[in-house]
Design goal:
By secondary structure, the chain is α+β, with helices and mostly antiparallel strands. It has one domain (about 10-160): START domain (Alpha-D-Glucose-1,6-Bisphosphate, Chain A, domain 4, 2-Layer Sandwich), CATH 3.30.530. The chain contains four helices and nine strands. The protein has helices at about 30-35, 40, 120-140, 155-160, and strands at about 10, 15-25, 50, 55-60, 70-80, 85-90, 95-105, 105-115, 165. Strands 3-4-5-6-7-8-2-1-9 form a nine-stranded mixed sheet. A hairpin with an 8-residue loop joins strand 4 (about 55-60) and strand 5 (about 70-80). The protein is globular and about 40 Å long. Belongs to the AHA1 family. InterPro entries: ASHA1/2-like_C, START-like_dom_sf. It holds the Pfam family AHSA1.
């Protein structure tokens, strides 16, 4: 499998937004459930525990990462089934993420935005998001999960040379 990178960079007042999208033939509520229900996130990202809600922090197990460690994710905003804003804090720093789900005629689009201060690290981060979003697609469609080896380092150059769009 040779997945094609899809991410784009947009300039912001605070830096850049790395934006990736995926489309699903499903209502927004069903896509939302894949993002927010622990038994469903376990299929493509990892299960989570804790009490969810805006201002609360949950623990997510990264079952597809080496060591399968747990990480804290703060829910900054949650407007089902359309908007989820998250903050993660770990050894690599603070990551601010926004997930938007929109639907037209039973087709939903998921837009993942990783808000960053700069382009630095995009070559390592972009392939990871491609991998996880394709994991989401595969898990929803009952397909075999992709291998991270198909994304990294193959997509590293694409993300390192990605320019900021207007």
């Amino acid at each position: 499998m040779t997945p094609l990178p899809t991410g784009r960079l947009f300039g912001t007042d605070a830096g850049v937004d790395l934006v990736l999208t995926r489309t699903f033939r499903a209502p927004a509520e069903d896509v939302w459930a894949s993002l927010t229900e622990s038994e469903r996130t376990a299929r493509w990202f990892g299960p989570w525990t804790g009490e969810s809600g805006p201002g609360r922090t949950i623990k997510v197990q990264m079952v597809f990462e080496e060591g399968q460690g747990w990480m804290d994710i703060r829910i900054d905003d949650c407007v089902p089934p359309r908007l989820l804003k998250l903050s993660t804090v770990d050894e690599v720093g603070v990551w601010l993420l926004t997930v938007e789900v929109s639907e037209v005629d039973g087709v939903s689009e998921l837009k993942l935005v990783h808000h960053r201060e700069s382009r630095e690290g995009a070559g390592d981060i972009g392939p990871g998001w491609e991998y996880y979003l394709d994991m989401l697609v595969a898990s929803r469609e009952g397909q075999a999960l992709p291998s991270f080896d198909d994304y990294y380092p193959a997509q590293k150059e694409y993300y390192e040379t990605l320019t900021v769009s207007e």
